[in-house]
């Protein structure tokens, strides 16, 4: 695959372009936080579907969506348009993504459970599909926009800033405005009417931020890599996919993402149940927790590049992850040991706020470093295969992450069913033994999935030295290709680098 004309003389990536690129992540995390925080409780406690049905539907939709990821990634890597390889997909996703997000939160009234289940399945699949249509090419832009070892981490940090702002910012807005709990107990996350304004605002933000990201980075299209001019059979495409994905560091990160995704999916699905029923927090206090997450996430944005330079990306991620797990399980562990402050006391609130801000800081560092580690695989794979395959690599990672995050949702809803969590439950009225069993199931589940993920991250092999070596190899290869093309004369060659065997 050749670089676009003038790519060697690409101007320095300005802050405005970085900002426009990073803003696009708002859409994805707004959707992610909405689905992970409110969707299960909305369709279970508000709409009235059984938790097993909700979990099964979400899992099937995730699996169907995940199967399409590598196909879209391979198409995105090889498509040739006047708008490049990525931007057409991103632009096409904007409107249907926003419309489907709005419809998801406004199901018909009076339908049977079976009809509502089908409605949920169609809409959740559509939302995830159009999110992939935007997010996958958007992620694939990052390795081309920023190639340096530390520059790439800085770009990922800026991207994470808007991930936090979009996801947690909208969560705070939900608790404080759209789904606000009134003094008389009405309203709140269990009242259907608040979801109309919430979903409409979310849809508008999704549409607007995608357009900003598309048009704000469009001027870089001439400096991005072009797809080669060639014909590839289905068999050839399959062989290329195998060679590209047969990379030890990629396999380690993909498997790590699988187990981490299960843990995150389970945690997010149960988070609001712990907040409302286990800790008996008001929605104002839940908004306070989300605010602590925003603060911690922003701190993580600034600390991640520092940790990456100091410890290296891999070991920085490993040790930060260990600390994050220990911090996260502390409040629930103290409650199970009867050492936590009582519900409703200021001391408990400060304990939860402290855990949230520290954990969010560490989680922000981890997310940024892991994203940068995955991006560094792009050049390592290109050295071995002769092809830039950002879309394929990221889509394959997303496939495993999405498929197993569906497992996390199943785990969460399965835990609720296992402990006998009641439907239409009210704060303070859930039996004590049910809440205790919820905590007893939660800790080993979270520690187990995260521990396996941490172990797999330690198998990653690309460090700063290796990444710089890869860049030098690719630079020399590009220079040799330009010389060969000049000697061959105009009109000769396809611009495709001879492929090496993996």
Count the E strands: 0
End-to-end Cα distance? 16 Å
Detail the poorly predicted runs.
Answer: 491-502
Beta strand %: under 5%
Whole-number average pLDDT? 83
Describe the overall structure.
By secondary structure, the chain is mostly helical. The chain is 76% helix and 0% strand. It has 15 helices and no strands. The chain has helices at 15-23, 25-46, 51-78, 87-104, 113-145, 149-178, 194-217, 234-245, 248-278, 283-311, 313-336, 346-385, 390-418, 432-457, 464-488. The longest helix is centred in the last third of the chain and has 40 residues, at 346-385. It is globular and about 80 Å long. The relative contact order is 0.15. The model is unreliable at 491-502 (pLDDT under 50).
Helix and strand arrangement:
Layout: H1 15-23, H2 25-46, H3 51-78, H4 87-104, H5 113-145, H6 149-178, H7 194-217, H8 234-245, H9 248-278, H10 283-311, H11 313-336, H12 346-385, H13 390-418, H14 432-457, H15 464-488
């Amino acid at each position: 695959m050749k670089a676009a004309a003038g790519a060697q003389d690409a101007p320095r990536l300005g802050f405005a372009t970085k900002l426009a690129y990073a803003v696009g992540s708002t859409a994805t995390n707004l959707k992610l936080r909405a689905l992970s925080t409110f969707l299960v409780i909305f369709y279970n406690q508000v709409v009235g579907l059984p938790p097993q049905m909700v979990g099964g539907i979400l899992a099937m939709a995730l699996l169907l969506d995940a199967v399409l990821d590598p196909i879209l990634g391979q198409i995105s890597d090889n498509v040739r348009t006047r708008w490049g390889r990525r931007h057409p997909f991103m632009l096409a996703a904007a409107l249907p993504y926003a419309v489907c997000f709005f419809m998801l939160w406004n199901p018909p009234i009076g339908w049977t459970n079976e009809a509502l289940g089908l409605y949920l399945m169609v809409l959740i699949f559509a939302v995830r599909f159009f999110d992939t249509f935007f997010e996958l090419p958007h992620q694939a832009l990052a390795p081309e926009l920023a190639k340096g070892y530390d520059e790439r981490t800085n770009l990922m940090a800026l991207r994470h800033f808007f991930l936090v702002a979009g996801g947690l910012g909208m969560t705070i807005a939900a608790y404080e405005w759209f789904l606000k709990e009134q003094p008389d107990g009405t309203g709140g996350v269990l009242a259907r009417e608040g979801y109309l304004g919430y979903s409409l605002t979310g849809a508008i933000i999704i549409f607007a931020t995608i357009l900003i990201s598309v048009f704000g980075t469009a001027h870089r299209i001439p400096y991005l890599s072009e797809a080669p001019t060639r014909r590839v059979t289905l068999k050839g495409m399959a062989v290329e996919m195998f060679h590209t994905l047969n990379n030890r560091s990629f396999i380690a990160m993909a498997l790590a993402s699988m187990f981490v995704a299960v843990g995150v999916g389970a945690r997010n699905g149960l988070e609001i149940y712990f907040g409302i029923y286990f800790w008996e927090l008001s929605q104002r206090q839940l908004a306070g927790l989300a605010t602590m997450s925003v603060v911690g996430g922003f701190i993580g944005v600034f600390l991640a590049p520092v940790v990456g330079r100091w410890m290296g990306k891999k070991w920085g991620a490993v040790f930060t992850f260990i600390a994050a797990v220990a911090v996260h399980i502390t409040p629930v562990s103290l409650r199970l040991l009867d050492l936590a402050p009582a519900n409703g006391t200021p001391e408990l609130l400060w304990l939860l706020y402290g855990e949230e801000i520290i954990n969010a800081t560490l989680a922000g560092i981890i997310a940024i470093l892991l994203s940068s580690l995955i991006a560094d695989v792009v050049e390592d794979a290109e050295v071995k295969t002769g092809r830039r395959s950002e879309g394929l690599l990221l889509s394959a990672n997303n496939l495993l992450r999405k498929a197993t995050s569906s497992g996390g949702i199943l785990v969460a809803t399965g835990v609720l069913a296992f402990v006998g969590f009641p439907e239409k439950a009210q704060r303070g009225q859930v039996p004590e033994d049910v809440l205790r069993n919820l905590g007893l199931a939660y800790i080993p589940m979270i520690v187990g999935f995260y521990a396996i993920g941490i172990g797999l991250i330690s198998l990653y092999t690309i460090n700063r030295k290796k990444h710089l070596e890869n860049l030098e190899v690719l630079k020399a290869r590009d220079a040799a290709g330009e010389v060969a093309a000049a000697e061959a004369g105009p009109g000769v060659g396809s611009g495709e680098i001879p492929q090496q065997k993996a």
